[in-house]
Amino acid sequence: EAIMVLDMCGSVEIAELYGDRHRSDLLKIMGEKVDEVINKNNKLFVTGTGDGFLITFDKTYEAMSSAVEILSHFQDYNNSVEDKCKINLRFNINYGEVQVVMRPVEDRNGLIVDATFRLDKARGKEKNKITITSRAKKVLAKESNHAFNIQSLGEVEFTGIEGKHEIFEVDWT
Questions:
Q1: Band of the pLDDT at 105, cuts 50, 70, 90?
Q2: Helix (H) / strand (E) containing 69
Q3: C-alpha dihedral over 11, 12, 16, 20, to 10 degrees?
Q4: Pairing of strands 52-57, 43-48
Q5: Tens-digit pLDDT profile for residues 76-97
Q6: What pTM, to 2 d.p., does this model score?
Q7: What is the pLDDT of residues 51-78, one digit of tens each?
Q8: H or E element that contains 171
Q9: Cβ neighbours of residue 18 under 8 Å, at least 6 residues apart?
């Protein structure tokens, strides 16, 4: 499965500055658009992560297309609202075998999922970025003729996961 982790940037700071209700309103706006896009792009699974989502797709191309469409939408949205209402996002995309668990509801876990979440720590807290693993990049090249502009960010270490892993940034603009 293609694993996509979507995170609202600065959600804690938003709550501290404007209150939990304001942050909840922004999360609702974000969630509505995310639902619309991922359903159109054949999502297999979705769960909330507090200020974002863990979403899986059959194909890496579906995850990438979703990320690009969502970021494009919020770029336009952000140009039309005041600063306190802006929604900035980060996407991490990986590909591999996940463990499907039922506890009391369906969930996804495993090393591939862990690595996808750890891309943020390896990458930093930049806004409105798509970061992918070398595995996702390789699978994406096989699935799609679309030429995404993908640049290496170098090799990084993920906390608790052995070895160095090359990560990439996708220029979605």
A1: confident
A2: helix 60-78
A3: 60
A4: antiparallel
A5: 999 999 999 999 999 999 999 9
A6: 0.94
A7: 999 999 999 999 999 999 999 999 999 9
A8: strand 161-171
A9: 84
The DSSP output letter for 160 is T
Residue linked to tokens 């390789």: 138
Q: For residue 57, what are the contacts with CB-CB under 8 A and spacing of at least 6?
A: 1, 2, 4, 38, 41, 42, 43, 44, 63, 66
Three-state DSSP state, 13 = helix
Amino acid at 63: A
Strand partners, 96: none
Q: Tell me the pLDDT tens digit for each residue of 15-46.
A: 999 999 999 999 999 999 999 999 999 999 99
Q: How far is CA 22 from CA 57, 84, 161, in A?
A: 30, 9, 36
CB 169 within 8 A of CB 131: yes
Q: What is the 3-state secondary structure (H, E, C) of 78-97?
A: HCCCCHHHCCCEEEEEEECC
Residue 147: closest CA among 131, 128, 168, 170: 170
Beta strands in 9-74, from DSSP E residues, in sequence order: 43-48, 52-57
